[in-house]
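seq as requested:
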Amino acid sequence: MAAPRINPALSRGLIGRGCWSRLDPAIPRPKIPGSSGDPEERLEAGRVVPCAVVGAHDIERVRSGHGGVVARSLIERRSVLWLAAVAALGLPVASPAQDFSQVATSIQKLYDALLAVMKAGAGVSFMQRYASLVTPVTQALDLPTILQVAVGPLWSAIPAAQQSTLLAAFQKYTVATYVSQFESYSGERFNVLPGLRALPNGDQTLRSQIVEGSGTVHAIDYVMRPVGGGWKAVDVLLDGSISRVAVLRSDFRRLLTRGGPTELASFLQQKATDLSASTSPP
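struct tokens:
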């Protein structure tokens, strides 16, 4: 059986590598090493990096020499103050073990589903694999929040009907990406690592690894947030620093400028169709 295309999955899916492929080859990357002038971009380690837009975890990604030590120290002090305030109010604080179990559940279920689909292999049709992953993906990822943040301030000006169309297209694209990239099995392992890192806004960073059959390890972090009684990822980070949401926002900005919400929705739908070998997801 052919080895699964783990590396492309890490470079093209919601999980990503340091050098992201674009959604659209016609869309230029930000100029390196300078800034485009966008106030939501910064220069880090000699390259333009869109600032994370889902919370204060972005500060922690600034490395030593760019204010990282001071920023992390500030985050830690604020976290201690927040915990002290909770204690003073007499609010219940879950144990670390309880927190981890609750936060990690949806990601573990996603990994279990991915392994099952990979082991089933190409003998199972794309549409069957798509159907198997819809629920795990949408329960693990807060797609409405990811989309809203990726679109940016324009979201509030988009009519509700178009927002729904965009969300449907984004979900199809996201699930189709997972299906197309995790298509066969060759000894891979998905490990959710114990321990959480609390962020000042209440989010939790959950660490995990994808280990290829060759032993190559890819570190994946999920920024988790309580949603509807459970926990979902609002961002996916490679090596704790590369934000998928920030990359999507850069891509989406150009598509929206070119043709507005209709252009973006059409593009995502077409990408989903292409990934499914010209068979549109349900």
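The two ends are 28 Å apart (CA to CA).
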